[in-house]
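Appendix B. One record, verbatim.
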Amino acid sequence: FSRTAAQYVSEGTLRELRALVDKSLLQHTPSARYEVHELLRQYGAEKLCSLPDAATEVSDRHCAYYVAALQRWAADLTGVRQLAALVEMEAENGNISAAWTWAVGRGQIERLDIAMGGLEHYYWQIGRYQEGEAALRAAGAAAAAVVESAADRAACLRVWVRALAWQSNFQRAMGQRDSAQQLQQQCLVILQDPSLAGTDTRLERGVLSWSMGATVCMEDYAQGRQRFEESYSLFRVLDHRWGMAWALNTWGTMSIFLGAYSDARQRLEEGVSIYRALGNASGIAGCVSSLAWIAMAGGRFQEAERLAREGVATARQGSIRTELAYALLNLGEVLESAGKFSEAHTVLQQS
């Protein structure tokens, strides 16, 4: 466990851990974490399992700690601490997975609601789509299993919809378009449940509209742009800044494909302004790279190259590999259009 996890163990436990360190049974690593020999870990786990009440209490406290951590990381992943949060979460991946599995297995809808944003962003940004899809599928199934007996049916339905919408986004990214669209249609049906009358479902609808747009946009640019515009409007009413920028980025991209360059530039400039305010490097890189493409299409090659290089530099700061590949692709196309073929070839090879 990490040193920060000391918040959920007692002083007595900490003394015992320090004694283990002194006896070299527990190693303190340069990464500021503790490691225990696997056989010793198994022995401790078996001892704990022999005390069911204690095991349940420990697992529940562990879950509560990491659910709260996921809530903090969710904010970090959309802002200036994006890279730091990803590094921290990667180190805690086993604990995150265990906490999520515990909450899912016990139908702890409130905890799933709190933790979902951080978990989804994490799996999406590191590109582990299969794990993300499986985690959100499990959450959706947990919500569906308890919805009829839930004390707050509306809250349970909202969690169910959001889990299915995020799950569909992972499926779409893995090429499972038909399955993604089936989940999205299921979300629309759930949102018509009478229990949701008078309940604020704008967040769920915003996520769903974006997911529906991303699924359909490459075969129908106009419908994709309409869905992204819907998503932006919903996020804007909520003052959900990252959601607004997320929708503006893709809305602007669809306007590029439709040849509406003036509209595309307006949306992307608004999106990059929000991303800059948030300090979100990967978002800035994506918008700036698209703006470079618009400048290139207008024959403004110096502006295009300046923006494209900014996109690459910013993407490197964010260390999100997909954004870096996209930024390099844009820079390569800009350099090619400017006749700088040798450098363009090198950059495209990097992409």
